[in-house]
């Protein structure tokens, strides 16, 4: 409001300056130099008032900007305060010890579930797996004796017997 009042005052002074300048010209034309000089001094004084008014308006505008910025800062500080209070309430609900306890319980539950899964799946213990590996090594190290394969070729067909193809089929049936 004060800024607006000062601007109105500036307009009034500016109009007066124009009138006084015109009046000073007229007085000079009429030969009234002393009165024209006095009017120009008054005009000069009003110009200085106009400059002071401009500075005051500038100061007021700067102050309004500072106030607006301070209001924004206050809102930020209030937001930070509310945020800190919220964090403190959350920390009261969940202490470090509580979080560590929950993590420990979770790890225990995961381990327990793994053990249940192993039992249900019939998985072997570490000892069982070691025994299986030893047995596998023993088998691979043993030399297996294979029967000797005849060196002469088998006949295509022996009269009164089955063909080689039929013999192979008969062996497959017996073996399965």
UniProtKB/TrEMBL annotation:
Keywords: Coiled coil, Endosome, Membrane, Protein transport, Transport. GO terms for biological process: late endosome to vacuole transport via multivesicular body sorting pathway; protein transport; vesicle budding from membrane. The keyword Transmembrane does not apply. One of its GO terms (cellular component) is ESCRT III complex. It comes from the Eukaryota. The keyword tRNA processing does not apply. InterPro entries: Snf7_fam. It is found in: Endosome membrane. Pfam families: Snf7. Residues 28-70 form a coiled coil. Belongs to the SNF7 family. This is CHMP6 protein. The gene is Chmp6.
């Amino acid at each position: 409001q004060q800024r607006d009042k000062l601007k109105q005052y500036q307009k009034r002074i500016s109009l007066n300056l124009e009138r006084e300048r015109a009046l000073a010209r007229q007085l000079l034309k009429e030969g009234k130099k002393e009165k024209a000089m006095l009017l120009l001094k008054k005009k000069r004084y009003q110009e200085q008032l106009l400059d002071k008014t401009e500075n005051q308006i500038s100061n007021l505008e700067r102050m309004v900007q500072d106030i607006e910025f301070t209001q924004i800062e206050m809102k930020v500080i209030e937001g930070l305060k509310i945020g800190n209070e919220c964090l403190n309430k959350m920390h009261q609900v969940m202490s470090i010890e509580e979080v560590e306890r929950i993590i420990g319980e979770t790890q225990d539950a995961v381990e327990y579930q793994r053990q249940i899964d192993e039992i249900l799946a019939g998985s072997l213990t570490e000892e069982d797996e070691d025994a299986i590996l030893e047995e596998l090594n023993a088998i691979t190290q043993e030399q297996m004796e294979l029967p000797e394969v005849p060196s002469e070729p088998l006949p295509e067909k022996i009269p009164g017997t089955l063909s080689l193809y039929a013999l192979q089929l008969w062996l497959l049936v017996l073996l399965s």
